[in-house]
Amino acid sequence: MHPVFNNRVQFPSFYRTSPNEEAEIDGIVQILKHFGWKWVGLIISDDDTGYRARETFTYALTSYNACIAFSSVLKYNFYIYFNHENNIFQEIERTTANVIVLFISIKYTYSFAHLFSMYKMPQKTWITSSFFPNVMVYRQEELEIALNGSLSLLVQEGEILGFKQFFYGFSPNKYTKDELTADTWEKLFHCYFPRVVTYIPGRTYKTCTGNETLSDANLSIYGDHNYRITYRVYTAVYALAHALHKLYSAQPPANHWDKLVSLKNNVNPWQINAAVNNEFGSPEAKFDILKFFFLPNNNIQKRKIGNVNVLSSKEIYVHVDSSVNLGLPHFDGIPQSLCNDPCAPGSRKSKREGAPSCCYDCVKCVDGEMSNRTDAPECLKCPEDTKSNLQRNDCIPKEINYLSYMDSMGSSLTSITLMLFCSTAAVLGIFLKYWDTPIVRANNQNLSCILLISLMLCFFCTLLFIGRPTQICCLLRQVTFGFVFTISVSAVLAKTLTVIIAFNATKPGSKLTKYVGTQLSIILVILFSLGEMGISLGWMASNPPFVEADMISEKDFINLICNEGSVTFFFNIIAYMGTLALLSFIAAFLAKDFPDRFNEAKNITFSMLVFCSVWVTFVPAYLSSKGSRMVAVEIFAILASSSGLLGCILGPKCYMIYLKPELNKRETRVLIF
């Protein structure tokens, strides 16, 4: 079985009767792989066969991420190496591997049997090479208990025609000079042939007659008449016979009168080699997988549970009978032999420092990654539109997130918007009802109406920010908000400038007198609004907003948002309104000391202070928010700043109209501005 004889150039006339040891090792590896045994012990003989086997096993197991739990070498002279045998037993007792491979040469069988007779081995599943049938000669209680249920790989059986009849007609009387036949007969029938033997006094000895019938012997160890090695020898002889027949048939008819003489005189050895039909020098590597059971009364049951075919192309086919309970008698089912429990789906393998390759830790997949198979080497990243589930074993679609009317935040903002809209409409109604009263006239009726209508539109435009974003909404909402809000701030600035002009026009020789009572305030509102309109048109023409599905900002949601297109244009609008508000604040602050009663300068100053505070805090809050929260921040800023204008400028007027009506009479002297 030595692999050196695989070299057909060096050994062209060498033919095996059994498969080479490499095929046997490949077969055992395939059995391990078939059952998923990745943590395996190995006991080898202290010779070239054992060391070659260890090297081959080590390399072959790594091909499917398996490894050797321990490797022990069985010495030949067991009685010299008692401590060594004890070390082997300690390795077996200490290992967590439930499967151990025995690959030893036949001459080490006695050392192996001695080892198992000295110690009570833990329950393991043993897989043995073709040496195993030789162990039957050394059967002892501890060995039978430990090896009960072992799996062995033996060459495939074959039927020899006529051998059964020959077998039952066999008698040692025909082979009186064959000592091996006599010894075998004595062991089978527990008798002795008359010859020179050492007799123990007082003991009764049964004499062998040679007429015993083999059908009465316990032949369970040998099975039926489909033998293994015997069949290989049989086929080898027939292969040579067919080669000789082929050469004989090729001779001229004149040489056929004496076959033996003809072959001796006319056939060279190299011709016989060429006539043998076996280019690889080895028989087909076909093995049976057998499970051995040691039964009472020295009976042995061999149960075929499958087969392994190792082809010359290195393709290997394994078949195992699934109905057989492979765990018997030590395990209920197929035993597991792993360094650690498999990593369940949802986790991945992580290299354990300093441990063999098949020993590893299991690490749960991080959020956004998944693994859907056992012992996954890596977690797979979920596509952008999906997320990992809680178990991390699947990717599920992300939820679509936007500020909806049905959300608690969306419904609350909608309610606040409608309430403020109605409040502004109510104030407008009050102003229209008391249109000709001094307090309404003193607050510039036209600008007040423009301010109230623009504030109503400001509140109303926030509804464009709520709901599932569409392309139309994305195009309109920022432009609409910017335009109507600019009108509101422009009206406040125009009011402030009107106050300053009116008070300064009373000074002697003032050139501002000609502007009092004109439509200057309306013109200012139009001019300031045109500036914002220009920015908006440039924005829409160059890089308009569009609907975008943001899959990155939040790991569990797809944020359906309006991408502003150009952040620069968006903040230019905010900056433009901020500039108008700052100018209003400065102008109102300068006019705050003008005569009281209906002077709005203080109210405008406070309203602009609120306005500027809201929008200054808006910028960092907006930039740090994502998804629907970002939209909610902008809505809050719009509602808060608009409410500031409504409450600080127009609220006191309503207070005076309803709670201080004595101040709203024509007899009261006021300065109208």
Structure description:
InterPro entries: ANF_lig-bd_rcpt (IPR001828), GPCR_3 (IPR000337), GPCR_3_9-Cys_dom (IPR011500), GPCR_3_9-Cys_sf (IPR038550), GPCR_3_C (IPR017978), GPCR_3_Ca_sens_rcpt-rel (IPR000068), GPCR_3_CS (IPR017979), GPCR_3_vmron_rcpt_2 (IPR004073). It is a multi-pass membrane protein. There is one protein chain. It is built from 18 helices and 17 strands. It is α/β, with parallel strands linked by helices and 673 residues long. Helix 8 packs across helix 10 and helix 15 packs antiparallel against helix 16. The radius of gyration is 51 Å and the shape is rod-shaped. The termini are far apart.
Q: Can you tag this structure with a few keywords?
A:
673 residues; eight-stranded mixed sheet; three-stranded mixed sheet; single chain; 18 helices; disordered C terminus; alpha/beta
Q: How far is the N terminus from the C terminus?
A: 118 Å
What's the number of helices? 18
Question: Which percent bin holds the helix content?
Answer: 40-55%
What structural category do the secondary elements indicate?
alpha/beta
Number of strands: 17
Which residues sit in consecutive blocks of at least 5 with pLDDT less than 50? 667-673
Q: What fraction of residues sit in β-strands?
A: 5-15%
The largest sheet is: 8 strands, mixed
Assembly annotation = single chain
Mean pLDDT across the residues is: 84
**Global outline:** rod-shaped
Rounded Rg: 51 Å
Q: What order do the strands of the largest sheet run in, or round the barrel if closed?
A: 2-1-3-4-5-6-7-8
